[in-house]
Amino acid sequence: MTAPREVAEVLASTPRDALLPALLENLSRSVAAADGSLPQVRLLRRFDDGHHQQIAAWPDDGAAHAHAHDTVERHAVHGVGVLEIRPGADLVTARRRRLLDETCEWIAATVRAARAMRTLDRARRDADQREKEAERAEVRAARVREGERIRLVETITTATVHDLAALRELLATAPDDVDWPAIHASAERLIADLRDAVRGVFPAMLPDRGAEETLRELAAALPVPVDVTGGLGRRAGWDIESGFYHAVAGALTTVARIGGRTSLRLHRADALVARIGSTQPVDAAHLTFALAVDAERIASLGGALVARELGDAVEVEVTMPDRSEVTSLPIGNRQIESRPVHGRVATLVEVAGLPADELASCRDALVAPVTLLVVQGPLPAPMSGVQTVLCDAAPDGALAAEIGDRDGRWGAVDAVVCALAPRRGFAAGLRPGQLLFRDGVAPAEAVSALAARAPVLAARRVLERLAARAAEEGSAALRWQIDELRAGAHELAEDALLDDVARGQAPDIVDAAAARLAGAEGGEVHVRLGLPADADAEQVRTEALAALARWQHAAATPGSAPRRRAAEVLERSAAGLLARATRPSDPAPRAQ
User: Would you give the DSSP letter of residue 160?
Assistant: First the structure.
């Protein structure tokens, strides 16, 4: 493009993906100075805290826009932010003014369309994923049906026919020579085999008395002693109990055939859990093969069956999620709206030039809930932005190493709370960046704290991912944008202070009001200041001034370095709230 054109011409001749820079370039050329020099035109997203972040620019010359110019003009772009022209251009002529207005309108429409397309793409990906999951479930269900048919046929045609043949042989003798005790034992064995086959399809006790009592009855009837401990708590849905029972019954029967003393431990968390142990040595791979049909069956219902060796012993763990227990809720839009840093990171993700797969992954990570692992505690009530995962193991160094594994059974864990005091070496064994709540914090309290911070924690997670990518690829431009964002996002400093509060390592001046001011209970202005939602502007201003005075005095008071840093963070938080309280809700664009 060498000469300015009408906006309609640019729209008609430019692909959608290249439309935004094309509009900026056309505007720059249209308002060129008399000597032919072209101003830089930048589209900036405006956040509630007054910060402006670049979405696009032409010419896009990296950090060159940081240089000072005599004049800077900003023009509102509805729903997006402002269009910045530097140095300021001559907009006296009606044509230039009309072209500027049309460009701003179409830029706003382009950004809105891009947001809508991203939402549509995410919905399509989710729909495709659900369709694939449904197809996999259908295949698993078909394999389970076939496995059940084969099992029943084998039971009837092999075991039962063999028992009938043995019974006929015993009866094919003279009446006086019939061995009635042997016949009685053979008939009992035949009835037991038939009963086992029928129970495998529909145990009579299961609908009325539940999976726990039915499993206890099964354990009592097995040929080896079985120690049953624990319990499943309240009844689950029929489909849950049925699938769980069949998997546990199959595994328990198979392990019992090995011989030796057997144990069955039942537990209820966010899932029905059974652990079957045997002191008899056995190859876990062989046991896994023997339980393949049971594993397929429970997998088709969303559960899992895993066999593992524990020294000389073997353990089979069966889990069946209870879908009545909601353990994860996505980050809500209201949470995101009160956290400007989330929008700034989201904007950076869009302009960072990431490959399509990485871009989609970062977008998903920005709305994914924070994962909290609850060690040896009850399942807390769900809250938006937090996923809870339960663990029964003792909090020691071995468990810490397992929690630190991003590809482990719990995935990438963001925070950990222990109902009981962790053992020595647990905290040191966690992955850097994982948050361990201090002793005495209840799981429900940890969920509430993380829900209030969820958008910031998600933004930090994605920012670290982008920083790792910039370092790996040696991208100076992306590294510069990340550094600029980190330097200007005070919420990141607040969140680091809240990490110290959660760990119990914050200076003593950081009390409950200070933590609330830093965003411990949410990002809204009235929440940070401890005011009701209907507080008027004067109340907000008064409280903000009082908070600012308190922390200015604390920052000026001699003390340790951590104490001073905390006071400075809180002083800036109060100053920011005061600025937001006095700033007009929609400031008019201005020349600088």
Answer: I
| Axis-axis angle for helices 94-154, 356-367 (nearest 10) | 80
Per-residue confidence at 71, pLDDT binned at 50, 70, 90? confident
User: What pLDDT shows up at residue 590?
Assistant: 38
All residues at 6 or more sequence positions from 46 whose CB lies less than 8 Å from its CB, including other chains: 52, 80, 81, 82
Phi and psi (nearest 5°) for 268?
-125, 120
Domain with 302, as residue range(s), is 148-321
Pairing of strands 262-268, 226-230: parallel
pTM of the predicted structure, to 2 decimals: 0.66
> Helix (H, G, I), strand (E, B), or coil: what is residue 125?
helix
Domain boundary among 258, 288, 321: 321
Strands 304-310 and 313-321: antiparallel
| Cα 398 from Cα 429, distance rounded (Å) | 8
Dihedral sign (CA 527, 532, 537, 541): negative
Q: What pLDDT is stored for residue 592 in this prediction? A: 34
Q: Is the peptide bond before 59 cis (omega within 30 degrees of 0)?
A: yes
- Assigned domain for 401 exists: no
Question: CB 387: neighbour CB atoms within 10 A?
Answer: 21
DSSP 199-221: HHH--TTHHHHHHHHHHHHHHHH
End-to-end CA distance of the chain: 30
